[in-house]
Amino acid sequence: MKLSPHTAPAEPDNLLIRMHNQVGAALDVKGTEDRAIWSCHGCGETRFEYPLYMTRADANEHATGCRAAYHRIR
Ligand SMILES: [Zn+2]
C-alpha cells in the first residue's frame, strides 16, 4: 500500500492525541481538555470544540471508518 504523505505530518504544539485512519493517514486531536478539536489528514474533515472525552470518541469513530489518503489536502 502506498502511504499518504500525511501519515506522519509535523506535530502541532497543541497536539493531544494522534490516531491513524484505516489507511494510515494521521488524525490529530488538538486543543485543551475543555475545548478539543480533531482534524483528519486523510479526508480533510474537522470537528470543533467539544470536551476532550467527547472529541476523542468522535475522532476514534471517524478513524475507524475513514479510508481516505488524499495527497493534496492539508
Ligand atoms: Zn478522514
Low-confidence stretches: none
Number of domains: 1
Ligands: zinc ion
Radius of gyration: 11 Å
Question: Which strand order does the major sheet show?
Answer: 1-2-3-4
Give the amount of beta strand, in percent: 25-35%
Q: How would you characterize the largest beta sheet?
A: 4 strands, antiparallel
| Topology order in helix (H) and strand (E) letters | EEEEH
How many DSSP E strands? Answer: 4
Gap between N and C termini: 20 Å
How many distinct helices? 1
Instruction: Categorize the overall geometry.
Output: globular
Q: Please state the average pLDDT score.
A: 89
Structural class label: alpha+beta
Percent of residues in helices: 10-25%
Structure description:
The protein has one helix at residues 52-65, and strands at 15-20, 26-31, 36-40, 46-50. By secondary structure, the protein is α+β, with helices and mostly antiparallel strands. It has one domain (1-74). The chain has a four-stranded antiparallel sheet, covered by helices on one side. Strand 1 and strand 2 (26-31) form a beta hairpin. It is globular and about 35 Å long. The chain starts with 14 loop residues before the first strand and ends in a 9-residue tail after the last helix. Bound molecules: zinc ion. Zinc ion is lined by residues 21, 40, 42-43, 45, 62, 66, 68.
